[in-house]
Amino acid sequence: MLKTGDGLVAILMVLGTVLVLAWRLLGPGWMRQPPRGPVVALLEEAGFDVVAGKVAIPVAVTVDDRTFDSRVYVDFLAKRDGKLYAVKVEKSRKPIPATGAALRDALLASWLLVRPHGIVVVNRETGALRIVTFAVRPRATGRWRYVAAMGIGAALAYIFLHG
C-alpha cells in the first residue's frame, strides 16, 4: 500500500538515476558553461581555443610525517594548432616581471603539473599576451668532464704505448 510521499520519492529516484546516467555518458563537463569574458576574447583573437577555465590541480605536500593539502591554479587551458597551453592572467597589483627567475617562480609549478606546450601570460589591462616555454637542459659541466676524462685517457694510452 502506498503512503503519502511515496510518489515524490519515486520521482526523485528516477530523476537521480537520469542525472547519474547523463553524468556517466556525457562526462562531468556537460553542465558547465564555456568560459567567457575579456580574457577569453583576447585569447580567441590570438587564435587560441579556450577549452577549460579555472583549473585547480590538487597537490599533497608531505613534510616528515605530516601531509598538507594544497592546490596549484591555472586560469585557463587553451589550444592552438593542436598544442595545449596553460593560461595565467597577471594580477594588476602583482605583474610577472620578464626575468628568468620571476617567470620560473611564477610559472614553473604550473608547467610541471600540466605539461603544456607553453604558458600564455595575459595582461588584462594592456591586452598583451606572452608565451613562455620551458626547456630542461642537461648540465654543461657534465659534458666537459666527459671530454676531459677522454682526453686524459687518450694521453695516458699514448704515453704507455709509445713511452
What structural keywords apply?
163 residues, alpha+beta, 29% strand, elongated
Write the layout of secondary structure elements.
Elements: H1 6-26, H2 38-45, E1 49-63, E2 66-80, E3 83-89, H3 100-114, E4 118-123, E5 128-132, H4 140-162
Parallel strand pairs: 3-4
Antiparallel strand pairs: 1-2, 2-3, 4-5
The rounded distance between the terminal residues' Cα atoms is: 109 Å
Q: What is the tally of helical segments? A: 4
The radius of gyration over CA amounts to 27 Å
Helix % is 40-55%
* SS strand fraction: 25-35%
- Provide the succession of SSEs: HHEEEHEEH
Estimated structural class: alpha+beta
Average pLDDT, rounded to a whole number, is: 85
What topology, given as strand order, has the largest sheet? 1-2-3-4-5
Query: How many structural domains does the protein architecture include?
Result: 2
Q: Low-confidence spans: pLDDT under 50, at least 5 residues?
A: none
Largest sheet: 5 strands, mixed
The dominant shape is elongated
Instruction: Count the beta strands.
Output: 5
Structure report:
There is one protein chain. It contains 4 helices and 5 strands, in the order ααβββαββα. With 163 residues, the protein is α+β, with helices and mostly antiparallel strands. The chain is elongated, with a radius of gyration of 27 Å. The chain has 2 domains: 1-32; 34-162, no CATH class. A 5-stranded mixed beta sheet has the order 1-2-3-4-5. The N and C termini lie far apart (109 Å).
